[in-house]
Amino acid sequence: MAYFLYLGIFSLIFIIFLAFRILEQSSGNEKTTQLSEIIQKGAKSFLFQEYKVFFPVIFILAVFFWIIIGYKTSVALLIGATFSVLAGYFGMSIATRANARTTWAATKGLGEALKISFSGGAVMGLTVVTLGILGLAITYYVTKSVELISYYSLGASFVALFARVGGGIYTKAADVGADIVGKTEANLPEDDPRNPAVIADNVGDNVGDVAGMGADLYESFVGSIFSAIVLGSIFFGEKGFKSVVFVVIFGLISSIIGIIYTLGKAVRSNDPAKTLRIGTIFSGVLTLVLTLLYSLYVNWLNIFFVVFFGVFVGLLIGLITEWYTSGKKVQKLAKTGMMGPANVIISGTALGMESTFAITLLITIAVIFAYKLLGLFGVALAGVGMLSTLGISLSVDAYGPIADNAGGIAQMAGLEPKVREITDSLDAVGNTTAAMGKGFAIGSAALTALALFANFSNLSNITSVELSNPYLFLGALIGGMLPFFFSALTMHAVGDAADDMVREIRRQIKEIPGILTGKQSPDYQKCIQIATKGALKRMILPAILAVLSPVLIYVSFGAVGVGGLLIGATVSGVMLAIFMANSGGAWDNAKKFVEEGNFGGKGSFTHKATVVGDTVGDPYKDTSGPSINILIKLMAITSIVLMTIVRGL
Amino acid sequence: MAYFLYLGIFSLIFIIFLAFRILEQSSGNEKTTQLSEIIQKGAKSFLFQEYKVFFPVIFILAVFFWIIIGYKTSVALLIGATFSVLAGYFGMSIATRANARTTWAATKGLGEALKISFSGGAVMGLTVVTLGILGLAITYYVTKSVELISYYSLGASFVALFARVGGGIYTKAADVGADIVGKTEANLPEDDPRNPAVIADNVGDNVGDVAGMGADLYESFVGSIFSAIVLGSIFFGEKGFKSVVFVVIFGLISSIIGIIYTLGKAVRSNDPAKTLRIGTIFSGVLTLVLTLLYSLYVNWLNIFFVVFFGVFVGLLIGLITEWYTSGKKVQKLAKTGMMGPANVIISGTALGMESTFAITLLITIAVIFAYKLLGLFGVALAGVGMLSTLGISLSVDAYGPIADNAGGIAQMAGLEPKVREITDSLDAVGNTTAAMGKGFAIGSAALTALALFANFSNLSNITSVELSNPYLFLGALIGGMLPFFFSALTMHAVGDAADDMVREIRRQIKEIPGILTGKQSPDYQKCIQIATKGALKRMILPAILAVLSPVLIYVSFGAVGVGGLLIGATVSGVMLAIFMANSGGAWDNAKKFVEEGNFGGKGSFTHKATVVGDTVGDPYKDTSGPSINILIKLMAITSIVLMTIVRGL
């Protein structure tokens, strides 16, 4: 674990260096600077509102654990929560400062803009990984127990819940609200500064896709390492423990080198997608090479094979996601728009459901091999392998919303079209990486949930369930229902919060007559506040559901029931998440494909039909789908903590 | 079992009496008679095409079983298949003859029309139950083994697969095809005889909602009785066995009395919904009273309680389904149409997903109580209880498409509007009963699958799975994926088959110039053929998937994996089926609510938005959703048969 501390501190220095490099760039003229500042303020205000709800909850929980178990668990919980919050806060601060700087760099050229936006993403990506391992190490030194790291993991899960679910509701409420009144009723173009919700929409990109995604993957990263360390220690002692630590270290080092390499190439790049892809693959290969050398050194080759499967499956899931959300599949989907919106919905739904097949088989095969080679430890280690290069893959992910924001600022500041062209080309790449990132997030959530389940089943000490024990099946039935119910709640939440938003935008347009003529500035802050309140209020019920269900099932059905619950929730949750993410991604790109001039182009009947698909896909892919990742991981870690409490640890 | 024979023969006589009463009615004027005959021919032609594919498959399977196990299993398989086919064929023959007779009776009044259409439904309902128990009894006498009844059940499952999946694809391909060209392109009203696909559409109602639904519930009925008999014999010997037989007998007797009662009330009824509801409740109560008396007589009161839970939950599931697909929920859904089709889709999706919550809890509670009272036998017996009054509940179900057909014939034959009004009011009731019937079908499929699973787990003899055995989880993961993939396949199938249909309708309208002016009759038969071929061709892949997956998983993961597979498939399948059925039903009724003049009425923006919802809901509720019922039951019964083979029975 000492390695985690050393490398973490080194990595922090690198991150600070990167951050300064970004901040020393010009944020442009008065207009772009001002816009960026409004977005910064909006994002911060969302985070602080969130913390106001979040920290009291976590403190009560910490006190509760202190009383019933001891102070160490409370400390672990608080470290997990605080470090994840810090990662999200810092990453978002830089991301919301990198946006205008990317816009301004775009006036100089594509390469410069790519460099700034990717640097911003890299700060987020590396911060998550770095604080993740630093927190782990500190927790370990404080608690002196691998098992109590579960509380650290639980803390991270809580942050993920708030950031992902709250952020997901926020971003879509703002987006849908802005679209309904702005585009449809008032006929304003996208990103028009006269739209009162336009800043809230830009804030939403950061809140959902930077902070939300970051907290989600922080949770996966920490959860899979925790599981692997515990299972590795149990089955292989020191040797197992150490190998996990080294794989994580190799991944972080490779990510840093990959990021430096990518930044070096960025300036002269004229194909951003290729540059980012080469950097990511480079880091993956480097991690594998280092792991291979290590395996040879300690003479334990299975480590290499399992990590290889993890990395490989992560890559393949990305490719399958890309296959279903771009190219031929999307063109075919766009074509169904010629028959009307209903056909777009049916075909897109079928497409998303179909995509569960290949991804499930892949995960299954990886897990079998990992299990055959290293038992339960292998299952967890494959998850660690998949997430080992999170440093760079999250950087690529977080780069997307920065580029998106940069485009919005260019539009709102009225910069020349050439700038917008450059930011648009960066944004287009960001859309693809976002779709792949979602696939990766689901895949890693599935493997993490499996690893946590392995941990739970080991802890629950249930060695002989009768298959005919109905509590297993009934637990699974309830578990399988929860992702559906959870999705219904989050979808309703988006709808209701968007309604609030629509009312506010209408009110402003009516009461401030100068808005539409551009003479008066709308009250952006008010819209941000409404979206924030709406999101936080409506995430309470889903949150309670996620945390209490394992407890209730344990009380009613016992540990076997909880085992069933986790199986059911993971199984139906993973399928639902894949379906929603890929249907949503495909609808988004089908609309874009038509907008490029195909099947009649913008404004045609087909375009309108695909817009319906895109609108349906928004809460699918950005709210409900991603929230399910959190649900299944949080339920798993809650069950583990529950077992440690029950066993009186 | 002797009781099954006696009562079955008595019931057959009653069915024949009912059938003659229908046939002696006038089928009306030349026009209505002719239309009815075309529908009869179309329905028959679909069935015979289906048999041509089906029987070779079943014979090969029978020969296979003969060789590896013995002739008894083949005989059981063939009885199961043949009796289910006979039930479907006979029921559909009468239903397609009752349609025009209902139309003609409607010229005399509502009561007469209700009487004929419900008689038609009753023939279907009673035939399914009667042949179900007769087949069971004969199988038992031939094989002299309760366990070999699984092959009888497998035969019934195969018919259900072909009837439900093939029929589901057929009915929606015809419906969608007729709507796209007829309504949208050629501007013809619903049920216009100039639309070449109009007969295929009417045939589809019978193929999907009469034969398909009938085969689905035949399978549930037989599967739950089989499971209860086996588990009852194992855990309670003769006593357990007998109580199942008596509950089934009480249910059939009560159904017959309820049907007679309803027919008596029908003529003077001016509220068809109420008349049907009273009849159904009457039968349920009578069954419970008889069961209570029997329980007191044999001094085993738990039998009564478990059956009571089954009946009660069946009823409640129906009510919950009604709650989600009518009234306030639907009005709120219709209102979202004012914001556009995307909002209708999102809200309807959330509605369907939300509905999984209450239904899952209900099933869970019923199963727990049943298990606490009678162990695994209780779980199976609750399923039998729920299906005990299938005779009348399926009658109410099958009445719907007859009324729907009657309306179509009235329209096509150009009868006076008053007649159409009467048939429309019958049809409206049918829509509600159809939605409740779907809820009932899913609920019973879930309980049957659970009962079959209990049987499987008992048979597989797995008394000690480690929860950490990854094959359980991986089996569940693959099982959970299958309903999604299966739904994708059936949705694609509808889309592709509808495309064939659209091409054919366009061709006819183009090549036969007299069609649109009404001077030349379109080639109805050709459309029926196209839909039939399209449906049968596209059900092969889903069918193979359903049958082979347990075998493949057994070979790869062993019996524990198959257990996981069944858990995963049932869990995610039940949720998906509930979601699709209720979203679809709500969308359908939201459209109707707007058509009644709300939120702008027919032709308004809101109406168009709700039409999109209805169109999306069609394959959800009539193809993919119901097909999942079959998938989970067929996988369960295949697994059981597999176990008997493996154990070398």
From TrEMBL, chains A, B:
One of its GO terms (cellular component) is plasma membrane. Its EC number is 7.2.3.1. The record marks A434 as: Determinant of potassium dependence. It is an enzyme of class 7 (translocase). GO terms for molecular function: diphosphate hydrolysis-driven proton transmembrane transporter activity; inorganic diphosphate phosphatase activity; magnesium ion binding; potassium ion binding. It is a multi-pass membrane protein. Its cofactor is Mg(2+). Requires K(+) for maximal activity. It is found in: Cell inner membrane; Endomembrane system. One of its GO terms (biological process) is sodium ion transport. It comes from the Bacteria. The keyword Calcium does not apply. It catalyses: Na(+)(in) + diphosphate + H2O = Na(+)(out) + 2 phosphate + H(+). Belongs to the H(+)-translocating pyrophosphatase (TC 3.A.10) family. K(+)-stimulated subfamily. This is Putative K(+)-stimulated pyrophosphate-energized sodium pump. It comes from Thermosipho melanesiensis (strain DSM 12029 / CIP 104789 / BI429).
